Amino acid sequence: MNAKQTAPLLATLVPVIAEAAPPLLICGAIFLTIKWLFFEDEKKQPENAPANAEAKNHRKTAETAFKTAVFRPFPAKMSVAPAVAPLPTVIQPFSVPSVPKFSAPVPTQKITAQIPLPPNKKKFLTRADLANVFHHGARALTRTAAVAALKNLGFGKTAAYEALSPNGRFSDWLQYAPDGIIAWTE
Fold this sequence. Notes:
Elements: H1 3-38, H2 53-68, H3 127-133, E1 140-142, H4 143-152, H5 157-164, E2 174-176, E3 181-184
Antiparallel strand pairs: 1-3, 2-3
Helix pairs in contact: 4-5
């Protein structure tokens, strides 16, 4: 074949080969993967195989004998000692000298179980509590002094500051001076 005849032949075969190549490559890759996963080479020996078949059989019989819990017999020439434990020595009791009894009562410690106290229920600050702190308008306090007085009644610092704030719940009954003095108004 000369070059003029080969070129048209290649021009017609190249598209056919280009269309058939990807599916053939994919099928070949799938076949090789399946062969690699499922069909191992049978000539290959496992890495931990015994050196000879006799050792392999000996190990199997030892494993099955261990699993069945059969006791191996003792040879006749082996002597077995009797299972007798020596008797413990008996110690005579020690005689205790008599102790005179005292007539005075001996104080005993009283054991009391400490029961945990129930958790404190939250105290809510009321208008009456604030009126008591300010003696119903008879005294005026600074903000820190009023907070300390409310803390002595059992309220928290945050609740006291919120109650005494100029835009708090009790701002209608409180009068705020420019110098920081707070007074109660009825």
